[in-house]
Amino acid sequence: MTDLDRTEDELDKSKAPLLDHLIELRRRLLWSVVALAAAFFFCLYFVDQILAVLVQPLLAAGQRQLIAVAVFEQFFVRIKVAFFGALMISFPVLASQIWLFVAPGLYRKERRAFLPFLFLTPFLFAAGASLAYFIAMPLALKYLLGFQGDLGGVHSTSLPGISSYLDVATRFIFGFGVAFLLPVLLMLLERAGIVTRRTLVRGRRYAIVAATVVAAVLTPPDAISMMLLAVPLVVLYEVSLIAIWFTERKRARDAAKETA
């Protein structure tokens, strides 16, 4: 048998597993789309109530008026709000579908190691979104809207557009929520052997620079908003190093027991 024949035989044997994986991927994508669509129509029904919740940080900053400058702006704003709410509601379902697709390819020990991170993800995301909603957004908006007033006899008034405010609000909430997943990401990378704790310790100064850059991208261009995100990112980086230290010690104890 030639090398070409052997290659063809191996390809024929791999067709069935590949098709099984594609079928499983299609099933998980279908469930994700169904969950997202159901959450979208649910949020579209309560879109005014969701929008009323999103404007509370603006009220806390002392601004009680939003304007629409385009004919269809109010309509598209409600579509964006419904999609934003659908992502928030369906996030656990999307994460579980990803896990159900990946888990069969892992060993039992690997599944036990990765499963806690899956449960930790929504709590960290909620913590970051809460920090943005209750603290960062009111402070940043109060600072940014504080430039209005008397300008030598001319009164300057800030009238935020509803679409631009929605973009700022969703960027704050999603940005802080995703940024707070940093410990999960670092611990997964360390668990997979891509990085080590020593490498992360040596790269602390670069992590601080990266946190500043991420904060500058995800927040409005003012120092207060940047600091409100950059400082928690640095703190979470240090918390990740401590958590990795504990996991390293636990793995060393387990290895010692197995050797004994």
Textual characterization of the structure:
With 260 residues, the protein is mainly α. It contains 10 helices and 2 strands; from the N terminus they run H-H-H-H-H-E-E-H-H-H-H-H. The protein has a two-stranded antiparallel sheet. A hairpin with a 2-residue loop joins strand 1 and strand 2. Helix 5 runs antiparallel to helix 10 and helix 7 packs parallel to helix 10. The termini are far apart.
Write the layout of secondary structure elements.
Layout: H1 3-45, H2 47-54, H3 56-60, H4 73-102, H5 108-144, E1 149-151, E2 154-156, H6 162-179, H7 182-191, H8 197-202, H9 204-218, H10 223-259
Antiparallel strand pairs: 1-2
Helix pairs in contact: 1-4, 2-4, 4-6, 5-6, 5-10, 7-10, 9-10
